[in-house]
Fold:
Amino acid sequence: MVTIGAGPAGIYSARKLAEAGHEVVIINRDIKPGGLVEYGIYFNKHKLKEGVRKQFRQILADDHVHYLGHIKVGEKADLTINELRDLLKPSAMIIAAGAQGTKALGIPGDTAAGVYHAKDLVYHFNGLPPFSEKDFKIGDRVAIIGVGNVMVDIAHWLRR
Ligand SMILES: Cc1cc2nc3c(=O)[nH]c(=O)nc-3n(C[C@H](O)[C@H](O)[C@H](O)COP(=O)(O)OP(=O)(O)OC[C@H]3O[C@@H](n4cnc5c(N)ncnc54)[C@H](O)[C@@H]3O)c2cc1C
Structure:
């Protein structure tokens, strides 16, 4: 079996498949497993992050689960689905690549310099390349649009 993506969906499905007696190969775009648990949850929520990482480490340590990171699957990526099929000849594939898009507001100015998507900033402060390397220019006065959990994390990071 092949699972594409090593976020919670990919890793927990690998566990179920391994428990059912399958050999599972997980292919993941990022070097580290964990998906948005690793790169979305704020970096100082140690208890939460470490609790989930521990579960992920146990699943990935299973002899029937094989993790391959830093491989992007797609038409213009490292491997296409067909290449993956030829290479590993899996009986089935699970695509658990998440839904990590950004949502523009579609109003004038939303592509101006200094307007950032929350997800890109979160990836930046959680150390996901290439966002970790990007220089986000931020002044003293910042407006955040949206009032959810991620807003709290970003406000927290801006005040650090
Ligand atoms: C900023 C942010 C903060 C969040 N904070 C919390 C929180 O505090 N608590 C909570 O419960 N939930 C939180 N969530 C939601 C939670 O993280 C997601 O619901 C969950 O991670 C989704 O799991 P997933 O496995 O479907 O996808 P993801 O976690 O997105 O994992 C997808 C995986 O697929 C890989 N991948 C993507 N494309 C490809 C490709 N083409 N080829 C190979 N691999 C690929 C990626 O590398 C990644 O490892 C947050 C989400 C965001 C965006």
User: Anything to note?
Assistant: Residues 5 and 97 are 5 Å apart (CA to CA).
